[in-house]
Amino acid sequence: MQTSFHVHSATCGCTPEMRAAGETDGRPRVVIVGAGFGGLSAAKALASANVRVTLVDRRNHHLFQPLLYQVATAGLSPGQIATPIRTILRKQKNAEVLLGTVSGIDTARREVVLVNQDAGHRINYDYLILATGARHSYFGRDDWEQFAPGLKSLEDATELRKRILLAFERAELEHDEAARKRLLTFVVIGAGPTGVEMAGSIAELAHRALASDFRSIDPQAARVVLVEAGPRALSTFPESLSAYTEQSLKKLGVELMMNTRVTGIDDDGVMLSMGAAEETLPSACVIWAAGVAASPVAKWLGLEGDRAGRVPVKADLSIEGHPEIFVIGDCALAKDNKGKQLPGLAPVAKQQGEYLGRLLKKLARAPASKRDAFRYQDFGALATIGRKAAIADFGAIKLKGFVGWLTWCLAHIYFLIGFRNRFSVAGDWAWSYLTFQRGARLITGPVDEPARPARDGGATAKRQAA
């Protein structure tokens, strides 16, 4: 994901000429672009190193993305899963934090170029870590984004929360039955972890938290549809856990449409293809969870990435021809010692960041030191489905149901940053568990714009209702 903030010309504490010449206080300068799991882990791992750390990000906060869907479905507030970067690194004396938008990398001069740059908007580096994450991918159909937003940032989450809650509010005012059904149909595209979590959480919101809040509509009549092009949900998990996931989703009232391709998305809803059969599913709230693409790191470096834009990296996570530049996380095409591609997961990025912290600490002492290869240690995978339902795959040990859900809760609370956030999230989850309520059901931003009508005057919705 491209980094976007604004920095003034005095960011580095030296003149533009000094920065261009690479003059520093004598310590090697490590510039980290991106304060996600990988970038932040690298910065913290360099706390005791004899280097200067400059962390650049387009937002001023670190976001715990695994819980972003809970903000989108009113389970948590944004402040509970985001922490200011400066707060996290305030005690790290060798680190500085800059808010800025990266537009390119000048590899010849070893400079990071910021948006609206002049001579004062370049940051020199001795070592560079690019950890800018991923963005939505619509597989060449970017025109779908306005109708089916994805979920990667707090802005995405609050916008989706607004769309979901407004759908119920507008349905309360709607007298036409077909139009009301369209408003109360929620379509989630993609049955990976994000899609499964979103579908399950929307179903629980409609069937539990909102069940008695309206007078003209029955929120429990809301239709939640999960669409997947492949044969099963959570395809990266063992088949037995996928089967449990599908059964649990059905118990929550989620409709599963496997082996179904999306052929179009517009104001009316979603056009689907199931082999020879075609169907239009009227919906006013479509959510995209089907694909991601790397941030434009490959473009910045003048390299050719893979189909998702990821940059091939060597065993030490550096790029070919530039041992001083490292790429990690979702924008890196990294492989294990067996040649298998590493997944785009938070644990991978965290371990890569910690590895680079150790490596650069060693290189700061002895630049010619041998570079050991990065080795990813897989501690397992977790995914939640809904209340008291989650799965965990630890290889020989597989958990599901309440035990899996409890494991998922404890793991996510543990990895949240800050005692306040951990305590707050644990308290909200306990309250929601006991009362079935959601404490962050706030519609923010303008709500007076009319709901997008179907272009055929609702005829499509009426045909489907018939």
Describe this entry's structure for a reader.
This protein is α/β, with parallel strands linked by helices. Helices cover 31% and strands 23% of the residues. A hairpin with a 7-residue loop joins strand 7 and strand 8 (122-124). The longest helix is centred in the middle third of the chain and has 20 residues, at 154-173. It is globular, with a radius of gyration of 24 Å. The relative contact order is 0.15. The model is unreliable at 1-22 and 453-466 (pLDDT under 50).
Bin the strand percentage.
15-25%
How would you sum up the major sheet?
6 strands, mixed
Poorly predicted runs are 1-22, 453-466
According to DSSP, the number of beta strands is: 25
Report how far apart the termini are: 44 Å
Mean pLDDT, as a whole number?
88
Gyration radius from CA atoms, angstroms? 24 Å
- The SS-based structural class is alpha/beta
Helical content (DSSP H or I, runs of 4+): 25-40%
Characterize the overall form: globular
Question: What spatial order of strands do you see in the largest sheet?
Answer: 5-2-1-9-21-20
The tally of helices reads 13
Write the layout of secondary structure elements.
Blueprint: H1 16-21, E1 29-33, H2 37-45, E2 52-57, E3 61-63, H3 68-72, E4 82-84, H4 85-88, E5 95-99, E6 102-106, E7 111-114, E8 122-124, E9 127-130, E10 134-136, H5 154-173, H6 177-183, E11 185-189, H7 193-209, E12 223-227, H8 239-251, E13 254-257, E14 261-265, E15 269-274, E16 277-282, E17 285-288, E18 292-294, H9 297-301, E19 311-312, E20 318-319, E21 322-327, E22 332-333, H10 346-365, E23 381-386, E24 389-394, E25 397-400, H11 401-415, H12 419-435, H13 459-465
Parallel strand pairs: 1-2, 1-9, 2-5, 9-21, 11-12, 11-17, 12-13, 19-22
Antiparallel strand pairs: 3-4, 6-7, 7-8, 10-18, 14-15, 15-16, 20-21, 23-24, 24-25
Helix pairs in contact: 2-10, 5-6, 6-13
